[in-house]
Design goal:
The longest helix has 24 residues. Helix 3 crosses helix 4. With 127 residues, the chain is α/β, with parallel strands linked by helices.
């Protein structure tokens, strides 16, 4: 089963959510945690990973995830998406879940852009 991964990055830890399987876990934000993350993700067909830019705390995990398709998102955009889908609580596991959902939603939006569906909707909305 294809999985979308959301990672909430903090100075001390990485909160991870595997979307569709609804699995969450946390690892330390250090080289040992990065290795454990890669090991755990190896058991899934990971399509995309999304994490927040956090002032540099994400650099180590970005390096570790070199073999994955990773997107780094502005935290304000992630928070806006969370509020739009009704997730007002702010905890690391919830944030990781929201990031995984955002990544999946972006996939659908980008697919629509490629097929021209969004452009058609936007053209009609301009009328």
């Amino acid at each position: 089963m294809i999985s979308w991964i959301g990672i909430d990055v903090s100075k001390a830890s990485l909160a991870v959510w595997i979307h569709l399987q609804d699995i969450s876990f946390s690892v330390p934000n250090d080289s040992n945690g990065d290795a454990r993350l890669i090991e755990k993700l190896g058991g899934y067909e990971v399509r995309k990973v999304l994490l927040e830019a956090t002032g540099g705390y994400e650099r180590g995990v970005l390096t570790a995830l070199v073999d994955f398709s990773v997107v780094r998102v502005n935290p304000r955009r992630a928070r806006a998406f969370a509020e739009a889908i009704g997730k007002h609580a702010k905890t690391d596991p919830i944030d990781a879940h929201v990031l995984a959902q955002l990544r999946r939603a972006l996939r659908r939006f980008l697919a629509c852009l490629q097929t021209g569906l969004v452009h058609g909707v936007l053209d009609r909305a301009a009328l």
